[in-house]
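Hi all, long-time lurker, first post. I run a small reading group and we've been trying to get comfortable going from sequence to structure in the token notation. Rather than ask abstract questions, I figured I'd post a concrete chain and ask someone more experienced to write out its structure so we can walk through it together at our next meeting. Sequence below, copied exactly:
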Amino acid sequence: MDRRQRVVILSESAVLDRERGLSLLNNPGAPVGVAQVRLPGGGATHLMRVMQTNACSLSCGYCPTFCGGKVKRVALAPEEVARTFMEAHRKGLAQGLFLTSGVPGRPTRATDRMLATLEILRARESFRGYVHLKLLPGAEEAQVEEAVRLANRVSINLEGPSDVYVRRLAREKDFSGDLLPKLEQAGRLSLGARDDPGRAHPVAGTTTQFVVGAAGEQDREILVLVARLERERLLHHAHFSAFQPVVGTPLENAPATPAARELRLYQAEHLLREYGFRFEELTFDAAGNLPLDDDPKTAWALAHPQRFPLEVISAPYELLVRVPGVGPTAARALVRLRRASAIRGLADLTRIGVDTVRAAYFLALRGRRMAGAPAPVQLRLFPHGRHLTQAPFRTPVPPCAYR
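-- Answer (accepted) --
Happy to help. Here is the structure in token form:
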């Protein structure tokens, strides 16, 4: 099997659309595994996302590449990954690389192969662009140090919030003795690297991922851990992947996690990281999960009616961003607007980006509430996640591989 065919199997193109993957084989000029990724400050870039190998000796129950999975096993040598990426980069097709891998046998050896790929890119090819490296379970401390030296961003996937849940997903993984300490180590090293004047490429911090719903964990348990790591600046942000069963895996017949749960976790994490919320302020249901019918900010606002309405002509920025429908950009624009001109009504707020349908009930203009009731909620015909046909995925690459 030639290099291009192996790259197709190991790239995200195999996840998104099998037919697209096949078309790449017939179109030598098409970019393999390249996806457009939005940047936090606006704009977008193109990342090549690829696994070094899909061979694996771990028993992750959600992953088609687990040790008993019936998928075609292929691998790329460090030289092949570097060459494939640089070819796409020189053509202007890919600005950065996201590199991950299965764990065939000893994790230290597989990690060394990924680090060798990055060493080729940085030392021989003089590539100074963005590289995201997903470190493997069982990586050694020295390998974590080398990963932070070579990559802009390092991620170590926790998958669950404690030993109990991680062991349910993969019996070989060690949450408290391996995954969490290595993530914290990477976080500390990344903090120190930010102040290194001799560093050739910027530090983007560490990330992690949770497979949500497969092991029975609570949102509360996930978010209390995320809040602690972000507060200590050991984690830049977290990713959440709603569990989706895959054909041929041990969890093939387990129920899928509603996509709304993934969305609510992202929204709650964003409140902790960008909006000044504390973990203790998040609202959970009796089962310890975030409400699915209201976003976390709305759930908090409805649970604290004594805080509202806020006066739009005087409320500080820190309170305005707590209003449903008012994000940081709109809150800053509102503060600027009221300094320069009089606010006459909802139309002025709409023009600066406020979602007045959601926000009006929580705001007042010169002492008068701008809406008499909260925004109406559309009643659901089906429970969350049950409006579509429930069927396991067919994919040779884990659905959550590239987060």
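A couple of things your group might point at:
The longest strand covers residues 44-51.
DSSP finds 15 helices and ten strands in the chain.
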